[in-house]
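Record format v2
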Amino acid sequence: MIVTTTWFLLLAAALFSIGVAGVLIRRNALVMFMSIELMLNAVNLTFVAVSRELGLIEGQVAALFVMVVAATEVTVGLAIVVAVFRTRASANVDELAEMKG
Amino acid sequence: MTDLLWLVIALPLLGAVVNLFFGKRLGEPVAGGLSVGVVVASWAIAVPATLSFVTGSGQVETIYLFSWIPVVGADAAILWDPLSAVMTMIVTGVGALIHIYSLGYMRGDERYPRFFAFLNLFIASMMILVLSANFAMMFVGWELVGLSSYLLISFWFTKPEAAAAGKKAFIVNRIGDWGFLVALMIIFATFGTFDFGTIFTTAPGILTVGAATAITLLLFVGAAGKSAQIPLYIWLPDAMEGPTPVSALIHAATMVTAGVFMIARAAVLFELAPVSGAVIAVVGTLTALVAALIAVSQTDIKKVLAYSTISQLGFMVLAVGVGAYTAGVFHLATHAFFKALLFLGAGSVIHAMAGEQDMRKMGGLRKMMPVTFITMAIGWLAISGIFPFAGFWSKDEILAATFAKGGAFIVLWAVGLFVALLTAFYMTRMFVMTFLGRPRWDGGTHPHESPATMTVPLIVLGFFSVSAGLVNTPARLAFEHFLEPSFVGVPHIKGLTLGLIVTLAVVSLVVALAGVTWGWLAYRRDELPAEDGAFWRRSLEAFAVDDFYGRVIVAPGKRVSTWAAETMDPRVIDGAAHGVARGVLRFGSVLGKLQTGQVRGYAGGMAVAGVILIFVFLAVGGGF
Amino acid sequence: MAETIVFIIFAAVALVGAVWMVMAPNPVHSAIGLLAVMFSIAVHYVILDAHLIAAVQVIIYAGAVMTLFVFVIMLIGVDTADAYGPQVPIQRAMTAAVAAGFFAAIALAGRVVWITGSAAFGRPNLSGTVEAVADELFGTWMVVFLSTIMLLTIAAMGTIALAYFHEDSTEDEASA
């Protein structure tokens, strides 16, 4: 039995779906962030696998860019979490509903 | 030598920036000294590059600075030829003297550093205009000159007249700028570039007479705005509200000559449009005549000089109109010297009289202000066209060129001669009323000679007002040969023999002497003659041109604006805006219900939509 | 064959880690789960010959990002109460449905591409060395690369602003 690209893609799909589920059921902002990181990682895995399949290095470059964006997003996101926590001593996203229409 | 020419623009700009931001901290002497220093340095840099043309070793060159808008052939580049060299010498040379003079004149002013910042900005803008190697850069300089003149004229903006004068100058100039801008559009549409070199070499081949006429007439609208020609001359007399050095800088030496310079620069285009030439010549002559008729009766010493400037500009425009570009630039140069001299002298007088500008309250200042008296006398004789002062040579050359054109141009020549007579008359009137006769001022004023920073520039300008004319005598046309590289492809005036020139010179000298004698006889007495009668009244109110413009252009314009502001805006524009706003509000309050504030709700929505979209794409792409 | 075994082991680790991350009530446990996922993904990159990406994955994700997460967890304290807290009873069911939908959708999409005309894995011999990636990154994608510099700078500024100016606003609130 030989590992094919399809295997990687299925693994990535599974990880992505678990990430989606995490975002939807957790109410702790930190864990939601982790789930988003998981989804981004799954996409990266897809990129690299497809890059290998097609023989194009661009997929790996794209993965690099995704990592940069993810790192930025985590930095700013965590800063927001800390800022929110300082004003209301909670990281529960359900309590953040001031903008309710 | 030409490598450093960019500094001629950069140094005054630097001075302006430094004075603008740090002037207050630098204090009076440092700020003023810096400002004078940069202009003198600019002049010093330009001198060797200009001298190379005199010795014959220099050549026309385009100095590339940096790429600006390459698509339209507009790089930041300096076109260094005799014409721009002459203008650079005038602007930086006379400009430096005016800067030095301002050191004394503006002493103690609250915004002293600011004034010098504006002066430097003006010099920098003027240098951009003069040194530009394409129309686009020239336009930048052109607009910057308009801006800095606005800043300078309304420098004492707390005076309502000064603020209004600045606005008037700016708005009237914008009408001219409109013409210039449209001309630039046609030029670009025709040539596909703004580069002087390309335009002037290809123009004779591809430009039709119609296009050439349209371009040149529109360019002339721009020139008429800057160089104060009919019908756009009205801003210049009002601009006297600015400090006197500003009047000298703007009116005498620099800004008003921009239009003449621009026509001379585009001489090749104007040569292709004989109709435009005729129009320009007629407008110039009319301007000279009307302004001289107004100048005759003015009692404000600066107003006399202002109208005399307009009149002299008329001469320059007449010169470029008949194709005597060298004569026009020559008169521009000599006029820069003697008119700057006259303005600065008038400033010295006003300074001495503690702000009094009415000549009827002067008189007998000769003894109190000997230096001002002698230098003003030189300026007076120079502008009146007395041999061998500078004005004689240059004005005479213009009249000779007009006469040599023949045909209907002889009429223009005759009118020009009459204007020369009037000029000699009103300048004599001004001079006699100010310096001679018995004192007519109040006991409270104690006139005194001005400080050295003010008199030294007067002496230097006086020297040039005597000698500048000698560079281009009919016997030795040194200036004309000097300028030749700038007017390649522009034909010479035909039919100018030495005998004709001398005859015409004698005629105009006689006329000038007659004007001086007339003025002398009329005003050199103890009692001023009563200047009464219909002509004097009309002339004193400048033929009510401002009034006329006010009724015909400004008032209807105001009515339209009022209608727009009071009917159009609240009903139609605001109505539409408010209607849209109400609609959005209503829609928003409905949509707001969807905004639950539950982050996971939104995330869920996104996820569901994502799944649906993937399936849609699969279906569309035939993935099943 | 060794490749297959490694793949199966680390795929299992990744899936278990991911599930644990989502289910664990304690955020620290979630972080450990995420760490496991990231390491195993790095191993998968090695299998795919993307060596540079694998190294970067370990350094940035397992190193920097995870450290950041742990720091923040320490900063704001471990908050285990109401970890899941479904407001709507059927939320879990809905979540499961959406996740399953995603999996099906992505798997289907993958099938579209890979079954049509794809050869066996590993035929194109592509090696993600530093040189190969750098050639591409500093060639074709130079402008994009440079713009990430701007992105990072702005993010740093934003973070500092959030951390620094916050004090003022709380004081305002306190005084108001």
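Residues 545-591 of chain B form the longest helix (47 residues).
The beta strands of chain B are 61-69, 74-80.
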